[in-house]
């Protein structure tokens, strides 16, 4: 069973400002909820590039930390990049980051295709915990991005709700 999540947000910034922020892996810390105890283990790099391997550690439960290894793929500077899990808490994780210039600034689009695994148990884990956790992470991310770049109008105009749904 695989799932799809999408989050959109418009910020009053230039495409260069938004790209420069998102293409610097160190900025992941500022848009990740403190409750995950997110820690980048890879050496600091000045930008994101195709083939880049990033190692992290996150806390999924109290006293339970898991490694997360992603590969950056399909980088189109100023437009998009993909992070794809190689090792981590999901059976499958493919996260497309897109940036579109719009009249009010830049629309940031996150599309995540993911699978939990573990057959029927995975469905229950997704329903009871994973979906809620991802909603929390992307809500926090939206708030952190708003703090960094500002917002366009009120929050209902600036963002569209994140959706997580079952695929196929």
Strand % is: 35-45%
CATH superfamily (homologous) name: START domain
Shape: globular
| Percent of residues in helices | 25-40%
**Biggest sheet overview:** 8 strands, antiparallel
Total number of helical segments? 3
Overall average residue pLDDT: 88
Question: Architecture, according to CATH?
Answer: 2-Layer Sandwich
Please render the helix and strand layout as text.
Elements: E1 2-11, H1 15-22, E2 39-40, E3 53-61, E4 64-76, E5 80-87, E6 92-102, E7 105-115, H2 119-149, H3 155-158, E8 159-167
Antiparallel strand pairs: 1-7, 1-8, 2-3, 3-4, 4-5, 5-6, 6-7
Short description:
The protein has one domain: START domain (Alpha-D-Glucose-1,6-Bisphosphate, Chain A, domain 4, 2-Layer Sandwich), CATH 3.30.530. The chain is about 25% helix and about 45% strand. The chain contains three helices and eight strands, in the order E-H-E-E-E-E-E-E-H-H-E.
Features:
168 residues, alpha+beta, Alpha-D-Glucose-1,6-Bisphosphate, Chain A, domain 4, 8-stranded antiparallel sheet, 43% strand, globular
